Amino acid sequence: MKKLIIVAVAAVLLIIGGISFSIYHSSVKDVQSAEEKAASQAKKEFNLKSVTSTQPYFGNHAFYVVEGTNRSNQKVIAWMPKSKKQTAVLKKASSGITKEKAISIVKNDKNPQEIKSVRLGIENKKPLWEVTYVDKDKKHLTYYYLDFSSGEFIKRYSLSQS
């Protein structure tokens, strides 16, 4: 009887593990597919020669940030909307501040304990940098938004850490 219970529990765990893996694999595949679609659309719409990276950004609306080069070998960034209700935006990378400059601005303005992430995004048709950091007291996780073109502060919000 004891062996039967152990076999039954093992079978249930295997089934649960298989279902979990299937769900995870399916969701990762969907995200990769959406990123590939955004990269393909950016290449087509903006006549890009190559794509070097694609990352999702979920602000007011879902966008995919596609970095690559145009036919003149200039580095460009395309913000591709998930929804057709939004408009795609293309900028030369040189027309905005770099990731390193965004980090430097936040470090100088806020003196954070730790920078958690830095990503390109877009809000209200305005490309931006989203810098996420932990404050020096380790009490808040802060999202700090800088204008992509000028590096000027746009907004920030903080979440209390437990």
Kindly describe this structure.
The protein is built from two helices and eight strands, in the order αββββαββββ. With 162 residues, it is an alpha+beta fold. The protein has a domain of 62 residues: Roll (Nuclear Transport Factor 2, Chain: A). β2 and β3 form a beta hairpin. The protein is flat, with a radius of gyration of 21 Å. The model has no long low-confidence stretch (mean pLDDT 89).
CATH topology of the domain at 99-160: Nuclear Transport Factor 2, Chain: A
User: How widely separated are the two ends?
Assistant: 46 Å
Radius of gyration, in Å, reads 21 Å
User: Under the CATH scheme, which class of the domain at 99-160?
Assistant: Alpha Beta
Derived structural class = alpha+beta
Strand content: 35-45%
For the record, the CATH architecture of the domain at 99-160 stands as: Roll
Question: What average pLDDT do the residues reach?
Answer: 89
Task: Give the helix tally.
Answer: 2
Strand order of the largest sheet: 1-2-3-4
Largest sheet: 4 strands, antiparallel
State the low-pLDDT regions, or none: none
List the secondary-structure elements in sequence, H or E. HEEEEHEEEE
Proportion of residues in helical segments: 25-40%
Rough outline: flat
